[in-house]
Amino acid sequence: MDEMKEYDAFAKRMEEEYPAMFVGAYGGFAVGKGWWPIISVLCANIQQHIDWANRNDQVVPQVVVAQIKEKFGGLRFYYDGGDDYVRGLVQMAEDWANRTCETCGELGKQRGGGWIRTLCDKHEAEYQARKNNND
User: Tag placement on the chain: N or C end, fewer CB within 10 Å?
Assistant: First the structure.
């Protein structure tokens, strides 16, 4: 499956599984597919918490995603709604992404040299090889 079809399938699955979270123009998923599992787990935990809390007479505003992107080598998950528990879930996911290759999802680390990226050793070597070939 080519990258665009993979992306479209992931976006469609997320929008179908969490329609209340992706009701507006959120700008898509501006991250590498290595972080898609993190976003998927995060959304599942957020929605499960909201549904549970609201069934048990707690009022937790529905989370609505505003933007999901990579910035300075890290995951940024911008949203409206939620509570302190949701803020903790988002912080945990962002910290998880800081140690996860944004390309493949394996263990990675943040790397500088211009644009900050979070990559495993293999994808960092590929990036450097491409960069050197373009110089």
Answer: C
Give the tokens for residue 55.
């069934």
Which pLDDT does position 134 carry in this prediction? 76
SS (H, E, C) the chain: CCHHHHHHHHHHHHHHHCCCCCCCCCCCEECCHHHHHHHHHHHHHHHHHHHHHHHCCCCCCCCEEEEEEEECCEEEEEEECCCHHHHHHHHHHHHHHCCECCCCCCECEEECCCCCEEECHHHHHHHHHHHHHHC
Sequence-ordered list of residues with C-beta below 8 angstroms from that of 102, at least 6 positions apart, any chain:
31, 32, 34, 35, 70, 108, 117, 118, 119
Q: What are the structural domain ranges in the chain? A: 3-100
Q: pLDDT, tens digit, for every residue of 91-110?
A: 999 999 999 999 999 999 99
Between the alpha carbon of residue 130 and those of residues 78, 110, 124, the distances in Å are 32, 18, 10
